Q: What sequence folds into this?
């Protein structure tokens, strides 16, 4: 049974909103981490320790997202896309709101992990629901819109923080506000129609999903490992390299210019929204391998330039931030559409899910490593960002592991 156009529009709107608020959670700690750390650590706070806790908060969110992507994604196969998506939204909104009452950095760390579970679960269930309810829609366009939703959420957060700056004395309000999507989660659970394709599959005698072991058969192991690598590089690069620009802006601008970090995140998010929309189209125009190679080179060069050729409060800083955000997020439009194409149909969902979430596990490890590097370098943001920008350059070599016809 096909959904009515109104029902399909409701599915698209709810899924995009779910990803917008997902993006708010992804952007929350980059913009608030130093203020949160100063408040929770009190007299024990130092600039280096602030950067170290930024890395820990980020790693906890990424680890939760990796686990949530697997666990809540699987839940969507068992109980339905709509219900699993609603549960994911409740996870990230309720636990984010509880952060307003955190009394120690360790409590906040645990809450960010729990938020990450919902952040990770939202993506696979939202993408599956929209794909199944809009089967005739342009895949690059729908994937681009969904990917742009995440960055639109980061942009929304940055504009709120520009109007009401987040400081060590005033940060709990943003966590309270992050609980607002609870209403969306409840509405999805009670009102949103389920995927007709999933409903039809419940009574069908379908073959069981391919086990993970199938992905490491001799004929598939090279594809699987290549998919994991090309997924991990942009994710690790984004969080272990790019995101250091926001606490760097916070430190340089200081309390006298508390809204500057929000403006920095806003310029990045505008570029990222455009980039996530354009990534799939770029790959279609010039080819999967060539586009990934060029994005890798561009992201590496622009990230190094952002940290070495300019700095917060300099006139050209936000222009470079905007361009870096646009180029570095072309990856995610590329991944959303073309990652599944790496695998044969029989193992496509299993393979793309494993690759994407392995990238998140790698990101958690990469961010912790960047935090250790930050401490070892005495809190030198430009050096850490520049060194970690080399992660993007690995894509120039990694994409050659994948044959163009198999993309």
A:
């Amino acid at each position: 049974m096909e959904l009515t156009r109104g029902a399909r529009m409701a599915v698209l709107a709810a899924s995009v909103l779910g990803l917008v608020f997902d993006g708010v959670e992804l952007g929350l700690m980059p913009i608030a981490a130093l203020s949160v750390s100063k408040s929770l650590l009190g007299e024990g706070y130092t600039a280096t320790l602030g950067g170290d806790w930024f890395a820990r908060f980020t790693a906890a969110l990424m680890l939760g997202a990796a686990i949530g992507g697997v666990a809540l994604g699987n839940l969507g196969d068992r109980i339905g896309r709509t219900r699993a998506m609603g549960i994911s939204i409740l996870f990230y909104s309720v636990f984010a709101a509880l952060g307003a009452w955190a009394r120690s950095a360790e409590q906040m760390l645990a809450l960010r992990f729990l938020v990450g579970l919902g952040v990770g679960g939202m993506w696979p269930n939202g993408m599956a629901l929209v794909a199944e309810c809009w089967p005739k829609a342009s895949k690059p366009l729908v994937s681009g819109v969904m990917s742009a939703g995440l960055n639109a959420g980061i942009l929304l957060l940055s504009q709120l923080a520009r109007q009401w700056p987040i400081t060590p004395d005033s940060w709990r309000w943003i966590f309270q506000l992050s609980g607002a999507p609870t209403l969306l989660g409840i509405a999805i659970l009670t009102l949103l129609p389920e995927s007709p394709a999933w409903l039809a599959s419940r009574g069908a005698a379908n073959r069981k999903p391919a086990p993970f072991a199938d992905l490491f058969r001799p004929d598939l192991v090279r594809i699987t490992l290549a998919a994991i690598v090309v997924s991990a590089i942009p994710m690790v690069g984004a969080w272990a390299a790019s995101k250091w620009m926001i606490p760097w802006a916070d430190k340089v601008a200081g309390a006298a210019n508390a809204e500057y970090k929000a403006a920095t995140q806003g310029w990045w998010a505008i570029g990222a929204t455009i980039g996530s929309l354009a990534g799939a189209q770029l790959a279609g125009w010039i080819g999967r391998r060539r586009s990934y190679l060029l994005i890798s080179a561009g992201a590496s060069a622009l990230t190094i330039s952002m940290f070495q050729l300019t700095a917060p409060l300099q006139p050209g800083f936000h222009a470079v931030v905007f361009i870096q955000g646009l180029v570095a997020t072309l990856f995610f439009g590329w991944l959303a559409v073309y990652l599944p194409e790496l695998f044969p149909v029989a193992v496509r969902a299993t393979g793309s899910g494993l690759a994407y979430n392995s990238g998140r596990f790698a990101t958690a490890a990469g961010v912790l490593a960047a935090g250790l590097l930050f401490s070892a370098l005495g809190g030198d943001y430009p050096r850490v960002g520049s060194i970690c920008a080399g992660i993007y350059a690995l894509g120039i070599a990694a994409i050659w592991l994948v044959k163009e016809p198999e993309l």
User: Anything to note?
Assistant: The chain has one domain: 5-406.
